[in-house]
Amino acid sequence: MGRAVTVATCALNQWALDFEGNLERIFRSIDIAKSKGARYRLGPELEICGYGCSDHYYESDTLLHSFQVLEKLLESPATQDIICDVGMPVLHRNVRYNCRVIFLNKKILLIRPKISLANGGNYRELRWFTPWSKAKHVEEYFLPRIIQEVTGQETVPFGDAVLATKDTCLGAEICEELWAPNSPHIEMGLDGVEIFTNSSGSHHVLRKAHARVDLVNSATAKNGGIYILANQKGCDGDRLYYDGCAMISMNGETVAQGSQFSLDDVEVLVATLDLEDVRSYRAEISSRNLVASKVNPYPRVKVNFALSCPDDVAVPTCMPIQWRHHSPEEEISLGPACWLWDYLRRSKQAGFLLPLSGGIDSSATACIVYSMCHQVCLAVKNGNADVLADARRIVNDESYIPEDPRELCKRVFTTCYMASENSSQDTCNRAKLLAEQIGSYHINLNIDAAVKAVVGIFSAVTGRNPRFSVYGGSSRESLALQNVQARIRMVLAYLFAQLTLWARGMPGGLLVLGSANVDESLRGYLTKYDCSSADINPIGGISKTDLKNFIQYCIENFQLTALRSIMSAPPTAELEPLVDGQVAQTDETDMGMTYAELSVYGKLRKIAKAGPYSMFCKLINMWKEICTPREVASKVKHFFRMYSVNRHKMTTLTPSYHAENYSPDDNRFDLRPFLYNTSWSWQFRCIDKQVNAL
């Protein structure tokens, strides 16, 4: 009687439509799983084609190439004597489903379609797939000829079923189904399923990992069982970073934990667990057993295969472990850094260029690149041949071995301080000192000649000379003059990104990094097509508050002492003239609100789904110790006016790392109009009526 089962799960850095690379990584995971004695291997959601294919799912090519990859897997000796569970899209009776294809020894055992589709936030699965709505029902699926020729099967089971091996019973969930209120593992567990599997495409959000871990552990805490979760990892082609965290849990406790952030393309977790521990755990839960005795059974696909060995009494099994969570500052240091590395190597560019202003946001972006260099050197030190090969290709040196993060930074990272007559010497010095400490190739330049040339064209055409407000100009003149400086910096950033390496006698070009934080984007406190316009932005989904905490983390962990003066300086755009040689302009004064207030507005607007009136109602209680209702009303109105006036800027927002659930990203996460009636007359009248009543 076998009792010790050995199972494997993995986190794979798959890439949308990279069928060749995806196949290679799947094979590597299977090889590692088999080498560690696993008899079952689970992979991430849609791992064959990559999760982020978006509208490419409509294309027949995506289905064709997925089946071609499946053919390679089925016919390979590498997949013999292990149950393989892979993800791909499948067209059944002209309906497209997000499926698991489970096979063993050149035979497909079951195709299991996803029941609950993810369709909120960044997810749009209902756009491309249909949920399987026939509970505990199985149909015949007619296999394509290329698969029939390998398996010798004409049809296979398709639907909501479970696998019955010689020693246990397995049931599959797919990502969102774990988060649903009626998760399939509940019914499956009552029907005697002992091993639950979940293939996920779950992305990183700050402070989210514990929620996923708690869900997995709670899935078996009340019902008993073994729960195996696989996840995508890395940047597969868009704004999201999939953060791994593959795990195995039994009876409510974690027994194996994968990394959340790493540069390893393939990570495999293997655990040996005692089925009798599940059975004895369930035996004493009388309420469970009473319900289980009445449950309608699942269709069972019988599998002539065992996950255990007959004589396994002496086989050691895994013990529970304590899950170790990263702090938010560690998450900011690691997640965007891994995302940047994936983007850099997959875009085949030679590095990054960052306009470094000496302020918190651009400094935090620089620190993330420095953290990326740390991760690369650590991965190479730990023997990661893929990272070493990528690093050598990026720096164009086949003998290069990255050992010092500062030295690697010098090769792949260019920073540029773009001074104007409105810039202070303090910010110039801060940028220069930080560049020295992280090792970036640093450029100092002055944009005054370009600004005067552009303004000169306007003056020559119109005969008018716009002036800053401190010199008697109107607010329109002053804002236009500030925007000219900001936009010229964007033009120069791209020029230097394209030609800096050429001027240094080196091949390749650089990706331009933006550094607008999530709060500034929400308020619209940025110039459209200024330095916030870049190729990618690693901090665009992170709040100012979290960035300040991250800067403190970098001071302590990277010994970047230059950040101390950056932390203590008030945030400023430095676009208006200096007064007595000192900065007179500050961000919070310009915005008419603090960054702390902006974070509150952002969370209420997006996460709490509050319009102006609801936000006012919530804030009069939240802020009752510091503001009168009339003051709260004034603040809420000002925020919504500024938000709606500037919403159009979100349509051109640089693709940003998604890290915060109140992101205003207009591309897919936060879908709103960009032409508002900015008077909000009806809404504000409701607020005024309530203020008068109070």
From TrEMBL:
Keywords: ATP-binding, Ligase, NAD, Nucleotide-binding. GO terms for cellular component: cytosol. InterPro entries: C-N_Hydrolase, C-N_Hydrolase_sf, Gln-dep_NAD_synthase, NAD/GMP_synthase, NAD_synthase, Rossmann-like_a/b/a_fold. Signal peptide: none annotated. GO terms for biological process: 'de novo' NAD+ biosynthetic process from L-tryptophan. Its EC number is 6.3.5.1. The keyword S-adenosyl-L-methionine does not apply. GO terms for molecular function: ATP binding; glutaminase activity; NAD+ synthase (glutamine-hydrolyzing) activity. Pathway: Cofactor biosynthesis; NAD(+) biosynthesis; NAD(+) from deamido-NAD(+) (L-Gln route): step 1/1. Residues 5-275 form the CN hydrolase domain. Homohexamer. In the C-terminal section; belongs to the NAD synthetase family. This is Glutamine-dependent NAD(+) synthetase.
